[in-house]
TrEMBL record:
<dbReference type="Pfam" id="PF01864">
    <property type="entry name" value="CarS-like"/>
</dbReference>
<feature type="transmembrane region" description="Helical">
    <location>
        <begin position="129"/>
        <end position="150"/>
    </location>
</feature>
<feature type="transmembrane region" description="Helical">
    <location>
        <begin position="162"/>
        <end position="184"/>
    </location>
</feature>
<keyword id="KW-0472">Membrane</keyword>
<keyword id="KW-1133">Transmembrane helix</keyword>
<feature type="transmembrane region" description="Helical">
    <location>
        <begin position="12"/>
        <end position="35"/>
    </location>
</feature>
<feature type="transmembrane region" description="Helical">
    <location>
        <begin position="56"/>
        <end position="76"/>
    </location>
</feature>
<feature type="transmembrane region" description="Helical">
    <location>
        <begin position="96"/>
        <end position="117"/>
    </location>
</feature>
<protein>
    <recommendedName>
        <fullName>CDP-2,3-bis-(O-geranylgeranyl)-sn-glycerol synthase</fullName>
    </recommendedName>
</protein>
<dbReference type="InterPro" id="IPR032690">
    <property type="entry name" value="CarS"/>
</dbReference>
<keyword id="KW-0812">Transmembrane</keyword>
Length: 191
């Protein structure tokens, strides 16, 4: 069971980095011209479409970091037998760029979709919305990746188990790390 959990976490590592990239990009101060809201500040039925915190800088940072992580995983796969043993997919047989786009884009689209839904419910950015604030990017990545995974590996035999495991683990890990971030004054919300 530990091997399965570790393999799932390793598989999803790029999406975890994608999810962390926008807040770090915001704090970096670089590329300030990209710090523009995706929704351009527009409203839908009197409420922000997404909110000012969903920016082009975050999208580009997330895509870049996610694709970079997939290429790093590909390099690790080629050079370390241990990585080959724990990997759920054969990185030497996939298009790393395309896989990076799918996992990164899916994670980002999941986050954006749930930000849109959260605004429709009248919830402000940072307001508690369990469990969706914790797993939105897993849902997005699952939607984007599952059809691709069916064509590239034996993952189609256990895709439901993979996504169920990742939803559960991500929910738990997200709360733990956000609590730590809150205690260390890195994150504004406990959840």
């Amino acid at each position: 069971m530990f091997n399965w959990i570790f393999s799932c976490l390793y598989f999803f590592l790029p999406a975890y980095f994608v999810n962390m990239a926008p807040p770090f990009a915001k704090r970096s101060g670089a590329f300030k011209f990209l710090y523009r809201p995706i929704d351009k500040g527009k409203k839908f039925k009197g409420k922000p479409i997404l909110g000012s915190h969903k920016t082009w800088k975050g999208i580009i940072a997330g895509l870049f970091v996610g694709i970079l992580m997939v290429f790093f995983q590909g390099w690790l796969y080629e050079n370390f037998l241990f990585i080959q043993k724990i990997s759920l997919i054969d990185y030497s047989k996939i298009n790393l760029f395309w896989f990076g786009i799918l996992i990164s884009g899916g994670a980002l689209c999941g986050d954006i979709l749930f930000a849109f839904l959260k605004r429709r419910l009248g919830k402000e950015p940072g307001a508690k919305w369990l469990p969706f604030d914790q797993i939105n990017y897993v849902i997005g990545a699952a939607i984007f990746l599952t059809p691709y995974l069916w064509n590239i590996s034996n993952i189609n035999n256990f895709w439901f188990q993979l996504w169920t495991t990742l939803l559960t683990l991500t929910f738990i890990l997200h709360i733990i790390f956000n609590r730590l971030g809150y205690l260390l004054k890195i994150h504004r919300a406990k959840w």
